[in-house]
Specification:
The chain has three helices and seven strands. By secondary structure, it is an alpha+beta fold. Strand 6 and strand 7 form a beta hairpin.
């Protein structure tokens, strides 16, 4: 496994639409292992492959709380089959937009289909933080960041802040 560099705004790669994965093989599993290692080190709870510069439809996540054993999850070619009309707000952040947090409103529940680490097709319902996180990560696959859901002013301020941090680092 290896740590990868996480791209931050305004890196244009983050705006790319990710390509579907053709098959779940050892190369892809190695990528997912690197993604998890990178996500844990950040630390974060979700990461899309495009955030480490690989524009393929792959997401990793771990929603275990502090003190709980790790619960790594893998989503290849995820699709949303259904989304609730009911929405819920959540204060989101993103490893590609460090130190910025703001409220985004999304469907409260979704039904998903994806391939897991073994390449098996899974259908599953998500609510709560899982629903927030999978929708946030799936936005990444379309080149959309959570700040794209905010007003233009807030988005521009966020990018400016991240640029400033990068310069200071
Ligand atoms: Ni993100």
């Amino acid at each position: 496994m290896a740590l990868r560099e996480i791209l931050v705004v305004p890196d244009p790669v983050l705006k790319q639409v990710s390509k579907p994965v053709e098959r779940v093989d050892d190369d892809l599993r190695a990528l997912m292992d690197d993604m998890l290692e990178t996500m844990y080190a950040a630390p974060g709870i979700g990461l899309a492959a495009v955030q480490i510069g690989v524009p393929h439809r792959v997401i990793v996540m771990d929603l275990a709380r502090e003190g709980e054993p790790p619960a790594p999850r893998h989503f290849v070619n995820p699709e949303i089959l259904w989304a609730s009309e009911e929405t819920a707000p959540y204060e989101e952040g993103c490893l590609s937009v460090p130190e910025i947090y703001d409220e985004v409103e999304r469907p409260a529940k979704v039904k998903l289909r994806y391939l897991n680490y073994q390449g098996e097709a899974v259908e599953e319902e998500a609510e709560g933080l899982f629903a927030v996180c999978i929708q946030h990560e799936m936005d990444h696959l379309e080149g959309v960041l959570f700040i794209d859901h905010l007003s233009r002013l807030k988005r521009e301020q966020a990018v400016k802040k991240v640029k400033k941090q990068a310069k200071a680092a």
